[in-house]
Design a protein that fits this description.
- This protein is α/β, with parallel strands linked by helices.
- The strands form 4 sheets. The protein has a 5-stranded parallel beta sheet, with helices on one face.
- Bound molecules: adenosine-5'-diphosphate.
- The site of adenosine-5'-diphosphate has 20 residues, from α2 and α8.
Length: 366
């Protein structure tokens, strides 16, 4: 089977892709198609006993569930592949989980990968040719796909077809290889960084929101049952209050609380109350509103060195020794959501609520 060669480093470089075609490629053999990618079950980091498997177990995100629930039902009745889905929002809100839920509901496999793993054309070609009809292909951090990979995806998404260049120079010709119908689920924390041709090829584009307290409490209580913990309601609420609206953090905090309960109770089966949660989360420097050490460092730097701002993102990142992208996608969204930070055209500023939370005098003095 003639497929595609990475042609050494050149074709992995997006800048070498040139116009609409692929970078120069040589005729190659099947050996250049990577072996079948891994299923969710082969990804230990993705296998998480706390993940909901069905749509009914997926707590919160009412709009998202409604839209996807209808799409699943319609797709099932037509016996087709679900339209391509783009999920965007801060990390830990349930994008990967939803891709797995979609596959489970549709009774198909979910192939999981992330854009940085698709650096060479053959990576993505290998994935696509190994799909089975109606499979879900989940690509995390899809905004990081390089141009060559994107161009391979366009006809694959639109017409279930691969357009490959076979041969070199004057003998080069394009060959179309049919693909089975499949569903691409793309996840990104930065929807704005996605190229518009790629974004336009998704039939369903959905934003995931931070969870409210009621949903977070339900998530914590569900996780406590799965972990075999005797967690009081007030303790679940306390974890929910401090998890930055994010299920992944709720689960992480709950595990830290479990550690403390284990040590205090001796056998780990003691009842966990609000005081124990307080003690455990203080130990991990998570405050009453869920701010952790990184959040407080950012606010503190802004207040102490820049009078509360405005300060540019790069300056803040340099001051904190953090990567600007991490600050922007991981730290800031929650501070913005809490109303502790403001993004202005001149830079980031601490709000009055942020000052009050940090115990800092107001702008006009104490
Ligand atoms: P993302 O892909 O958006 O970074 P994940 O899908 O990996 O987030 O979710 C992180 C963890 O949070 C999951 O392992 C799962 O246990 C939990 N989780 C996410 N969404 C929900 C939900 N709606 N209900 C219950 N648990 C959830």
């Amino acid at each position: 089977m003639a497929i595609i060669s990475s042609g050494g480093k050149a074709s992995a470089d997006p800048s070498s892709a040139g116009g609409a075609g692929l970078s120069p490629v040589a005729p190659v053999s099947a050996r250049l198609v990577d072996p079948a990618p891994l299923d969710a079950a082969d990804h230990p980091e993705r296998v998480d006993g706390l993940r909901p498997r069905r749509l009914d177990d997926y707590i919160g995100q009412k709009d998202l569930k409604q839209v996807l629930g209808i799409a699943i039902e319609a797709t099932r009745s037509r016996n087709e592949a679900l339209d391509h889905v783009l999920l965007y929002g801060p990390p830990g809100l349930g994008k990967t989980t939803m891709a797995l839920v979609l596959a489970e509901e549709l009774g198909v496999r979910c192939r999981i990968t992330s854009a940085p793993a698709l650096e060479r054309p053959r990576d993505i070609v290998g994935l696509l040719v190994n799909l089975q009809p109606r499979d879900v292909l989940f690509i995390d951090e899809i905004h990081r796909l390089n141009r060559v990979a994107e161009e391979i995806l366009y006809p694959a998404m639109e017409d279930f077809r691969l357009d490959l260049t076979v041969g070199q120079g004057t003998t080069a010709r394009t060959r179309s290889v049919p693909l089975v119908p499949f569903t691409l689920v793309g996840a990104t924390t930065k929807a704005g960084s996605l190229s518009s041709p790629l974004r336009d090829r998704f039939g369903l584009i959905q934003r995931l929101e931070f969870y409210d307290l009621v949903d977070l409490q339900a998530i914590v209580e569900r996780a406590a049952v799965l972990l075999g913990l005797d967690l009081r309601r007030e303790a679940a609420l306390e974890v929910a209050r401090r998890c930055r609206g994010t299920p992944r953090i709720a689960n992480r905090l709950l595990r830290r609380v479990r550690d403390v309960a284990w040590v205090r109770g001796g056998d780990g089966h003691g009842c966990i109350d609000g005081a124990l949660v307080e003690e455990a989360l203080q130990l991990h420097r998570v405050d009453g509103r869920g701010l952790d050490a990184s959040d407080r460092r950012l606010l503190h730097l802004l207040l102490e060195q820049y009078g509360g701002g405005p300060v540019g993102l790069e300056t803040l990142a340099a001051g904190l020794g953090e990567d600007a992208a991490t600050l922007e996608t991981v730290v800031e969204p929650f501070l913005l959501q809490m109303g502790f930070l403001q993004r202005t055209p001149r830079g980031r500023m601490v709000t009055e609520a942020g000052r009050a939370h940090m115990g800092w005098p107001g702008e006009s003095g104490p």
